[in-house]
Every structure is written in C-alpha cells, then in structure tokens.
Amino acid sequence: MKVALFVPCYVDQFYPQVAIATLEVLEKQGVTVVYPARQTCCGQPMANSGFEHLATGCNENFVENFADCDYIVSPSGSCVLHIKDHLHVESAEEKAASIRRRTYELVEFLTDIVQVKTLTSRFPHRVGLHQSCHGQRGLKLSQMSELVAPPFSKTGQLLGLVEGLELVQLNRADECCGFGGTFCVAEEAVSVKMGKDRVADHEAQGAAFITGNDMSCLMHLEGILRRQNSPMKVVHVAEILNAW
Q: Which GO terms describe its molecular function (predicted)?
C-alpha cells in the first residue's frame, strides 16, 4: 500500500510536528508513505471566500503531485473534504475524479481502510475531543447530535485504544468552535465567543488537553487558551496516536 502524505499549509508552517506524527503513525501500521515535494495549497481558502475560480492552479498542481499513489492521506478533515468536493481539472478530470475517491483524512483512513484494532500508544491524561464541523458533517467521522440515530465517533474509537487516556464527556460534543476558515476573520467577535464557549465546556469537564482532527480548529482554541493563561493545551489526534 503506497500512501502520499498531503500536508496542509498551516500544518506545514505552524505545526510541522503534526505532519511528522502522521507519517510515523502510518509507518507503524506498515504503510509505505511518500511525500510529493512540490505540493502546495489545496485551494480551500479561496473557495471559502467565494473565489473558487481562482484555485485552478492549485487544482492542477494537486493532480500533478498526487496522481500516482494508492491513497492520499492528510491530518486535516477540512482540506480533505475540500478535495473530495471541489477538486476539478478540465484537462484531467478523470485523474481528478480518481484522486477525489482516494483521498482520506487520517482517522478515516485508519478506521475504514487500515481497520486498526490495536495501538501501542500511551497518553495518560484527561482529554476532551473537539469534533470539527467538516469532519463530522462532511466526512461523517462522528454522529451529529441533532439526528435520532446511534452515536459513534471514529476518532473516539481510536482514542479508546490509547493506554491511559481518559476521554471526558462534553456537554455539547459537536458544537462548532467558531474558526470556520475565513469566518474567524470576517466575524471575529462571533468567532471568539464561540471558541470561548468550547474552551469553557472542556474546562468544566476537567480536561488537560483538547484534541481533534483539524489543527485549524485547535489553533483557534489554542489562541483563546493562551489569552486566558489556561494550563490546558491542544494536541492533534495524530500526536496522541503516536505518543508512547
């Protein structure tokens, strides 16, 4: 199994340890991982702002870099959903369609494709899970509370395999953190209030860490935690799965 690692811009620039953890988690599962060195932005920021037509170059570059592999895996639900829903290249639509089908978020890939049943990781802390909107409602990584259906969480399932980890129960487990890509810039006050609400929920449950599948959401929450001088920290799920 040959997997191409897709590293989002903000992970590359601000949280490279998440990309490294993703690589190591995949390799521990016996997966051969390659890194297309000429990859760049997937085009999501332009699409979020209503300028998807300006992402043509990003789309063409993505197809050029990720056409030759079994799967494409990324530690970002929002970027993966963007590729699945918006990757189109007029001159190479067949390749683009194939890439859309083969692109997976890390947890999605581990649970659905690799079908991980055991882990050797250890993380002896109380952890709150932030289930980001793109992953939950777009990739179906967890059940939405507004639906009358049995609850599930693929991320929670993997975290349950980590030795010593105690997953706390939040009052509003699937509430948006307020990041929302460019929303946090256009609607700063609303975004901050939503983030404060999410932080307060984790604090009320005594969590020492907030984890999630999207470092963008965690970056938003981390900024609030720092402003509040909170001892709580954020950590991407890949870092927990790679911990020992």
A: oxidoreductase activity
Tokens of 64: 């050029």
| Spatial separation of the C-alpha atoms in residues 190 and 62, rounded to whole Å | 33
Q: Determine the 3-state secondary structure of 43 from DSSP.
A: coil
pLDDT 10s digits, 177-222: 998 877 888 889 999 999 999 999 999 999 999 999 999 999 999 9
- 126-241 maps to CATH 3.40.50: yes
Angstrom distance (rounded) from CA 51 to CA 45: 8
Give the Cα separation of 164 and 159 in Å (integer): 10
Residue that has been written with the tokens 């970056």 in this structure: 219
pLDDT digits (tens, 9 = 90+) for 131-140: 999 999 999 9
pTM over 0.90? The answer is yes
Question: Of 7, 1, 17, whose CA–CA distance to 237 is shortest?
Answer: 17
Contact 149, 188 (CB under 8 A): no
The strands making up 32-34's β-sheet, listed across from edge to edge, are 32-34, 2-5, 71-74, 103-105
> Residue 154: CB partners within 8 Å, gap ≥ 6?
107, 108, 111, 112, 141, 142
Q: Please, which residues bridge with residue 34 across strands? A: 4
* DSSP type of residue 112: I
Contact status, residue 25 vs residue 159, Cβ threshold 8 Å: no
Q: Strand 2-5 and strand 32-34: pairing? A: parallel
Instruction: Compute the Cα dihedral for 191, 208, 175, 47 and give only its sign.
Output: positive
